[in-house]
Amino acid sequence: MYFSLAIPLITALLASTISARSVPPNVRAFFNAHRGPCRNQLGIEKGGFAYCGDKPGVIFLKGSGGQYDNMDIDCDGINRSAGKCGNDRSGQGQTSFGSLVRGVSNGAAKELDANLVPYVVFGNQDARPSFDPQRFGMRPLSVMAVVCGDRLIYGIWGDTNGGTLTGEASISLAELCFPNEGISGDNGHEANDVLYIGFTTGDAVDAARYNWRAKSAADFERSITALGDKLIARL
Fold first, then answer.
1. Considering 36, 48, 102, 231, which has the largest number of Cβ atoms within 10 A of its Cβ?
2. Tens digits of per-residue pLDDT, 2-47?
3. Rounded to an integer, what distance in angstroms lies between the CA atom of residue 208 and that of residue 5?
4. pLDDT number for residue 92
């Protein structure tokens, strides 16, 4: 009886440790240091949100007036209407990089699942203005860092926006960031206080080692944490 209770308790504690990771001092310093205007605007989208290149080796989203960006919800990919994505009328059955997943996962996954994979929607295509992070060195499925709700969450670059909007992530990443905000397919986080950081170095992606069989977003994030820790140490 003791062990049967202890095992699920330990599992729950591990999941909660991941979802509640505090922001490391150097990342908090980065957040505070870049509240001002972006000096090296790589691209500007609707509302004046900029893809900023002020720090070598990274691209981050920056708003005006000391703001960063919000977090809209993406339910694209496999199981797009599952769970809390059931009220999302804009979901699509595929993501921009879903075609890569089957290969790097050795068949374990056919597409990204927004309910299980914490991914960021980053870049804008099929619209004017457009922005392609790959032009500046980012690679599909690379690890990204997200500062949200006074937490640090790791995700992967999994999709792009088909218009000119910015500030969007899979529903599973949003729930890790804001577990008490009633996140759903049509309810995200409106405040422009979320920092999305992409990395342009070649070692930012190691997709074959990600846990593509994960049963939860916390499980998936655990598989990319070591790489994420290495990347943010450079900020």
1. 231
2. 333 333 433 444 444 444 589 999 999 999 999 999 999 999 998 9
3. 34
4. 87
Task: Read off the DSSP letter of residue 105.
Answer: T
Cβ contact 111:98 at 8 Å: yes
Q: Is 60 exceeded by the pLDDT of residue 183?
A: yes
Provide the 3-class DSSP secondary structure of residue 227: helix
CB distance 143 to 199 below 8 Å = yes
CA angle 85, 72, 169 (to 5 degrees): 75
For residues 163 and 160, give the distance between their C-alpha atoms in angstroms, rounded to a whole number. 9
The helix-helix angle for 2-19 and 217-232 (nearest 10°) equals 50
- Three-class SS state of 94: coil
The residues, ordered by sequence, that sit 6+ positions from 50 with a Cβ below 8 Å of its Cβ are 38, 41, 42, 43, 44, 61, 62, 63
pTM, 2 dp: 0.91
- Taking CA atoms, 130 is separated from 42, 47, 90, 167, 201, in Å, by 11, 14, 20, 15, 22
Per-residue pLDDT reduced to its tens digit, 58-99: 999 999 989 999 999 999 999 888 889 988 877 789 999 999
- E strands present in 31-162: 41-44, 50-52, 58-62, 69-74, 119-124, 143-148, 151-161
For residue 104, the tally of other CB atoms under 10 A from its CB is: 18
